[in-house]
Records
---
Amino acid sequence: MTPEELRNIIDRAHYFGLLQKNLDGQLVHAPFSLTPYQLPSSLISQLQIHTQWSSLLFWKVAQNSDFLREILEPTAKVDEFVRFLLSLIPNEKRQDQQLLINRNDFLFERKENGELQPLQVEFNTISASFAHLSGRVTALHQQLQQENILKAAPLPHDAIAGFASGIKETIENLGWQDAALLMLVQPKERNWFDQMGLFATLSQRGVKVVRATLAEVHQKGKLKNGDLWVGPQRIGVVYFRAGYAPGDLPDEDSRSARRMLEASSAVLVPEASMQLAGTKKIQQVLADSSILSEFVPESVADQLKAYFAMMFGLEEEVEGRPAREFLEENAEQFVLKPQREGGGNNVYGAEIRDFLTSLPTSEDRAWIAMKRIEAETAESLLVVQEQAQSHQSISELGIFGLLRAQSDDLRINMPVGHLVRTKASNVNEGGVVAGYACLNSLISTDQ
Ligand code: ADP
Ligand code: MG
């Protein structure tokens, strides 16, 4: 590719709004791939169904606060963040409407018989991001296909439209005059453009949006008869793009703002219980089939299990040995994960050995081990900071899901679009804003 051809493509990426902020706060193109990811259409349909079952599963888990407490209390003893979230679970329901916006992430292994095996990386119940930018990279690839720069047209999708209808319907259902969406954000958000996509779509549809950090909610927010107000605005739904990391709760002001949200009558996306249902510890425990089938019918449990990778707690026995001993021998084949979201927290492969030496056994329950997924690699052309480079890469597919419920009544449960992130195969983590991965589109092949 000539420098001029690359310039033309980057100009189009700007035109289509494939943007994020750099460390100086300026809008620059987000890293993107020029090699769309291909999957058979039958497999894509299966993953969409899997996402609906997963949404159902986590919705049920979140409603069972006794289960959450039983599993997470030992973790909470050694993890202050989990302890804080557990303390938020209310004793009584304040709002019978629920809205879950999630993303179900998969990597793919090629089996010996040639089949592609999807394995779930994790199910995100808070701040599932990139719905807007994923639509933007799809639009860019559509354009490049029209210009014969790319061969095949990507699979169209509109996750943001799905999110926006779920939010609008939920607000309308509350039946309150002029209730707004509160979009809870971090103070210096580099993924601002992705959030702005949802903000603008809601504005176009007549939904009022208030954007605020927890510090701002602390300053301007209050409860009136249990209802949440921020300044002059009554809030119907709170959509969290913050509050998933301990750094978001640095002081008593921010923690008290977070408590106020949970105590209010607003619909929280997600409630603390739903956020906790999405912790790695709960996902690890659910990988045990007898526990899984307490929440979903046996046939569904079988379908969910088929995509689980092996997981265990550090406090457990594995193959007749203490987990730590087992990991000492097999570190290369595993990933260690704490109860955190947002990337950059895991320990991979051989580094697990040193890490475990420095981790006191009293903190075992703050971590889980997961079998490292050996994703199939493919040659991809990636554009990062205006440079195009070919890499042997792996791709991670996320399916966005929307679930809306009233009391025990499930009103909506559907997949609403997807996200593909492609990264060089020697990179462990997956974050786009952090510069690890590139946004990509999906091509569905018939076979
Ligand atoms: P976070 O909640 O911080 O995003 P994840 O569990 O999603 O944590 O892990 C971050 C990234 O690490 C993933 O997007 C994926 O690329 C990689 N990863 C996580 N688990 C595995 C695994 N079992 N095998 C291979 N890569 C993994
Ligand atoms: Mg993740």
---
Amino acid sequence: MSDSLNILYLSAEILPYAATGGLAQVAAALPRAIRRLGDDIRVILPRYGLINPEKLGLKRVLAHFPVPFENDVEWASLWRAPDPDLPIYFIEHQRFFGSRQGIYSFPDDGERFVFYSRASLEAARHLDWRPDVLHCNEWQTALIPNWLRTTYKDDPFFARTAVVYTIHNLGYQGIFGYRVLQIAGIEQHGFIAHPDIAPSLNQVVSMMGRGIIFADIITTVSPSYAREIQTPEFGEGLDPILRDRSERLFGILNGIDVEAWNPATDTALPARFSSDDLTGKQICKRDLQERMGLEIDADAIVIGLTSRITDQKGFDILTAVLEPMLRLLPVQFAIMGSGDQRYHHILDDLQQRYPRQLAYHAGYDESLARRIYAGSDIFLMPSRHEPGGLDQLKAMRYGAVPVVHATGGLKDTVADHKPPHTGTGFTFAPYDCMALYAAVVRAIEIHHHPDIWRDIQNEAMTRDYSVDAAARAYHRLYRRARSLKLTGRPES
Ligand code: GLC
């Protein structure tokens, strides 16, 4: 018997087709790396209106197949991308996806993603391609583990299929009312009444909660976050069920595509550089200052930040100390991102009052993101919590030394500088504005010692952040999930 498994990887976002955040990046890089290890992994997402089949050269592979939905059927079709390295499928349904431009935030999101999930399973059946493992991500696909234990339990096609469920951010659980269970055809199983372990699940449907309860294996995107979410402080009400299933919960550190994020080959940059020769980084810094309208000053310490502009990302503590930093420290800020209006206003206001020192670009622009990593001396990520985090990895690879809150994936990837020469950045705790301020001051002090700074930069740039380690871990976990499903024991 060949050792290759069939894996169906389900994610509501996959780059370059649909993206709002880190999920889309992981869903693009991880399956490719897993495929290189020999498994037949295929990915599937909805064909949102913004995905144009003609422009992208998609081919229709299933014209019309039935999907059980709310005591009836809905019809879907299936498209495939012309990607030679990875089979990428799209579920088409005009009303739920095709006729709309955005990805989320419609009043019927519950129905839309229940449909996408169910249609993905039925598509596998109609392709006659039997998955050994379904790898589900986030709340949008979290009813699948529930179905496999109920609706599909005695279905010969799926009876031997195991489920790995990945949490990228417990903050987005997919909370809906009872109706979503009717649509999904599992209302006879009712709310999950766990009065002792999870009273929060008695009155609402938490899609993510169901994913956690029914999956064979649960993963999240860093070892620290896997521990944190088992505590009431980070558990968002689900910590009791996570503790209950802790022997099935694994923290697997995210990685990045190190070919796509490489300062030595990046054509978006005005100059290229590597850890052996940082001359190009000086050119990138000057170019960034010029492009963003900052004062051109080789001695100013440029602090870069690309992020959603929200509380979770630390903007509450950052905005409390931004102005004192601008007044008292030899720094400039290059900030990009969008999010909460009130932080936009604060940043716009500071930009007007300190135009040579703070530049703010609202929105997301990948080429500018690359220039920020390359042109910054320091990269700031003060997230209140951060399940995995990808920006700090890119920043380190581009020689921008990170200053981060010691939480989740940030804690696992940034090694705090210890005198005389070790570390890849600076971490702070507790989560408050004074600790943040102190960490930035500490970084600036060390920046005044070029030899030490150079060692930190060098260590940050040469560590291995590739997605391959995560791929190897999933390759093992798929086998463990399968064995748990088939024998009830972790290894067969
Ligand atoms: C979510 C998390 C982020 C993680 C990303 C990819 O966006 O908030 O920390 O890096 O998913 O897993």
